[in-house]
Design a protein that fits this description.
- About 35% of the residues lie in helices and about 25% in strands.
- By secondary structure, the protein is α/β, with parallel strands linked by helices.
- It has two domains: about 240 residues, 3-Layer(aba) Sandwich (Rossmann fold); about 60 residues, Alpha-Beta Plaits (2-Layer Sandwich), CATH 3.30.70.1170.
- Strands 5, 6, 7, 8, 9, 10, 11, 14 and 15 form a nine-stranded mixed sheet that branches. It has a four-stranded antiparallel sheet with strand order 2-3-1-4.
- It is globular.
Length: about 325
């Protein structure tokens, strides 16, 4: 399996999304290994400095993310020991989590005592982060439709010390029946995972434009259900780890036309990102989509990501 293969149709799409001067840098970054990151878990420890110091003794040097006080990039490893084999990891003092993956919960901003729905929760990186921000109060519905993914979700929640969650196994679309029930809803949608190509070689070879269109049909239905389930005035965050506009801007453009919602502008100080597209090929989108953001690996050395924050009116 060629580790440098990128589907030609995928590359043609990228050319229509970024300036020509950035294309080669994008391809190069996609073929560069992804740096590791961790999130300090305050449900298990309130001493961030001690964790940083202890990992330094293990030969693991960290650099704090400018936009998130609990997020750290691994900058140096002087020993062969995997970070997942450290005592601090076994004790749940930190969670190995990609930097882009931390952004949706920062945008969601769940508060203590909220009722929160995480519509596609496994393996639990964002669910455990939600519980942390809620200080183990309120309620998190950690929904995962795939049975085989629930054990990993349960294990990560337990290791992280989450006590305020309930795991459910439903098709996320059923939550449309729970109208006006949640203070926050996270739709970290299943997607074509184009943003993970730099670490998932198999996904490159399985990519097809037809699958992009197919999964977009599910994404819009999940987001509709999320809007129904949210209380009026509540926040819905939609995110994917992919680049295709069919799964990103087209979904948000459509929900703006269908539902009584508005976009809130996203901002992460110290993080380089692009505004969402307002035009792709022959399609024009609502100019409000400038309030959404795209994470490009050639600009951030992170996974590709898309993020939108909606408020139900």
């Amino acid at each position: 399996m060629d580790p440098y293969f990128l589907p030609p149709a995928f590359l043609e799409k990228i050319k229509d999304m970024i300036p020509a001067s950035e294309f080669n840098a994008f391809v190069e970054s996609t073929n560069t290994p992804l740096r590791k990151c961790i999130r300090i878990n305050t449900l298990r420890t309130d001493d961030v400095g001690e964790i940083v110091s202890n990992l330094k003794k293990e030969g693991i040097s960290l650099a704090q993310m400018p936009w998130y006080k609990y997020g750290f990039f691994i900058t140096e490893r002087t020993k062969e020991k995997a970070i997942g084999n450290t005592l601090e990891h076994f004790l749940g003092h930190f969670y190995v989590q990609e930097a882009s993956s931390m952004l949706p919960v920062i945008a969601l901003a769940p508060k203590p005592k909220d009722a929160v729905l995480d519509m596609a929760a496994a393996p639990g990186s964002k669910t455990t982060q939600i519980s942390m921000h809620m200080q183990n109060t309120g309620l998190v519905i950690a929904n995962e439709p795939q049975l085989q993914r629930i054990p990993a979700l349960q294990e990560n929640l337990e290791r992280s010390g989450s006590l305020n969650h309930i795991i459910t196994r439903n098709d996320g679309r059923v939550f449309k029946k729970m109208e006006n029930s949640f203070d926050c809803v996270l739709v970290d949608a299943p997607c074509s995972v184009e943003g993970t190509f730099r670490k998932d070689i198999k996904a490159r070879h399985l990519w097809q434009q037809g699958k992009v269109i197919q999964i977009a049909r599910l994404q819009i239905e999940l987001l509709r259900a999320a809007v129904d389930a949210a209380k009026r005035g509540s926040t819905i965050v939609y995110s994917t780890c992919t680049f295709s506009p069919e799964e990103n801007e087209m979904i948000i453009d459509r929900i703006l036309k269908e539902q009584n919602v508005e976009l809130q502008k996203l901002s992460f100080e110290g993080l380089e990102y692009d505004a969402g597209l307002i035009k792709y090929r022959d399609k024009d989108f609502d100019k409000e989509l400038k309030k959404t953001i795209r994470i490009w690996p050639n600009k951030t050395n992170m996974e590709g990501f898309y993020l939108a924050k909606l408020v139900k009116l």
